Amino acid sequence: MAFPRLATSNLPTATSEETKNTMSPARGAPMKNQILQKLRAPEFVHAWQFWFEKGQSTASAVKAESADDYASHVKPLGDDDGKIRTIRDYFQITNNFSLSENLKARGDSVHMFHLGVKPLWEDPRNARGGAYYFRVSKDRAEQFWEQVCLMAVGDVLQAAVATNRNSFNDEITGVTYSIRWNAVQIAIWNRDADNEAGIQRLLETVLEELSEEVKPRRKEEYWYKAHKAHKGFVGAVGN
Predict the structure, then answer these.
(1) Which intervals of the chain are annotated as region Disordered (predicted)?
(2) How far is CA 93 from each of CA 17, 27, 78, rounded to the nearest angstrom?
(3) Angle, in degrees to the nearest 10, between helices 196-209 and 138-153
(4) Cβ count within 10 A of residue 135
(5) Domain 48-231, second-level architecture
(6) Which of 6, 170, 192, 235 has the fewest Cβ atoms within 10 Å of its own Cβ atom?
(7) Nearest partner of 171 among 126, 119, 133, 226, judged by Cα
């Protein structure tokens, strides 16, 4: 008994895309590289760095310090000196650093700044700038902080203050979480205190992006202040 034969002589030639889709999967090193590439988290537009600052016990001690003394209290936080380039790096630090356990005294602070920028007024990229300050109750502070940090690493804050000046395409320099007597002060630092339109857009963006449960209740809970308006600015930066 003869078996019927499958006719293949008149079949169309497979396209390059069809050939690609039916190829055997990569093996060995090529397969490993493909998998790692798919698993690798995309990098942030800007690299960041976490810093820890231990507050001083008395106001008089703070006043007596020089700029160098103050800077000595600010140290990189976490592995790799607190440097983060991806969202995985970010959560690697934040998931292993408890704010409530490590920040207890007035002035204890955590900063997240662009890599290469120190959380100090005298840093050249901060000297002409200022910060938007938010006074947040302690029960809402950690959630508020996380949302602001994610806005920062996601470049949401930078997009709010963006201008046509190429030299300020990284105007948002960092964010700070600092313990106060009966609340937490969260600050968003920018490079140019004269960028009034950008600063206003920054506030509008933050208020729009924050979840309802952590949004400020009153206007008295947030304000902008140029660094040079602080009493200790001249001593830290000089004339």
Answers:
(1) 1-29
(2) 43, 34, 6
(3) 120
(4) 17
(5) 2-Layer Sandwich (3.30)
(6) 6
(7) 126
Q: What angle do CA 199, 50, 177 make, to 5 degrees?
A: 55
The domain segmentation of the chain, as residue ranges, is 48-231
Chain position carrying tokens 């950008």: 198
pLDDT tier at 62, thresholds 50, 70, 90? very low
Query: Average pLDDT, whole number, for the chain?
Result: 84
pTM of the full predicted structure? 0.79
The answer, yes or no, to whether residue 66 has pLDDT greater than 80, is: no
Please list, in sequence order, all residues whose beta carbon lies within 8 angstroms of the beta carbon of residue 186, skipping any fewer than 6 positions away. 133, 134, 136, 141, 144, 145, 148, 175, 176, 177, 178
- Strands (DSSP E) along 98-228, which ranges? 109-114, 130-136, 172-179, 184-190, 222-226
Buried b (16+ CB within 10 A) or exposed e, 94-117: beebebeeebeeebbbbbbbbeeb
The pLDDT of residue 224 is above 90: yes
pLDDT tier at 60, thresholds 50, 70, 90? very low
User: Which tens digits make up the pLDDT trace of 84-125?
Assistant: 999 999 999 999 999 999 999 999 999 999 999 999 999 999
User: Tokens standing for 60?
Assistant: 């008089």
Of 206, 212, 204, 141, give the one whose Cα is nearest residue 177. Answer: 141
* Rounded CA separation 23/88 (Å): 33
Q: What's the pLDDT tens digit per position in 15-27? A: 666 655 555 555 6
**H or E segment and range at residue 51:** strand 43-53
